[in-house]
Amino acid sequence: MHADIKIIDQVSGKRLAVAGGNYRIIISGEETENRFAVIEMTVPPNGGPPPHAHPNTHETFYILEGEVEFKTENGKTVVSKGGFVEIPFGGAVHCFKNTSGSFAKLLCTVMPAGLEKIFEAIGQPVSEGEFLPVPEMTEERKIFLQNLDEKFGQKTFPPDYLE
């Protein structure tokens, strides 16, 4: 007995406003026995998450459109369409930012699944092409985000941490 093959069209999935971007959870851990999740990230100019680390998640990014600047503890690199980034298990601090003047689109895979749950918790439902401002960093939001980090084994750093 084998599992059925899944075919997911370009409009299916949950769309969320996250870190100034528009993230589509193409396939979640609930659908893969938590083995992996795949998220399509549309990132506007100046969009992207703050520096963070997740030691128990192996994450990859494939750049579908545009370019983003990836920052790590080893420096920064602009990664363009067709480029690939692998963040292995272990907790390397990383972030990315769209430093260009046009939209970038990334395909992110996380193994095991779980990071998509953070996106679901912090994101707001949006439609394709809809971008919401990043929520204000109130004390209440800081505590909410710290609790999420603890729950999901992630650590978030100040925006200038990798400068």
TrEMBL record:
It comes from Epilithonimonas arachidiradicis. Residues 40-109 form the Cupin type-2 domain. SUPFAM superfamilies: RmlC-like cupins (SSF51182). PANTHER family: PUTATIVE (AFU_ORTHOLOGUE AFUA_8G07350)-RELATED (PTHR36440:SF1). This is Cupin domain-containing protein.
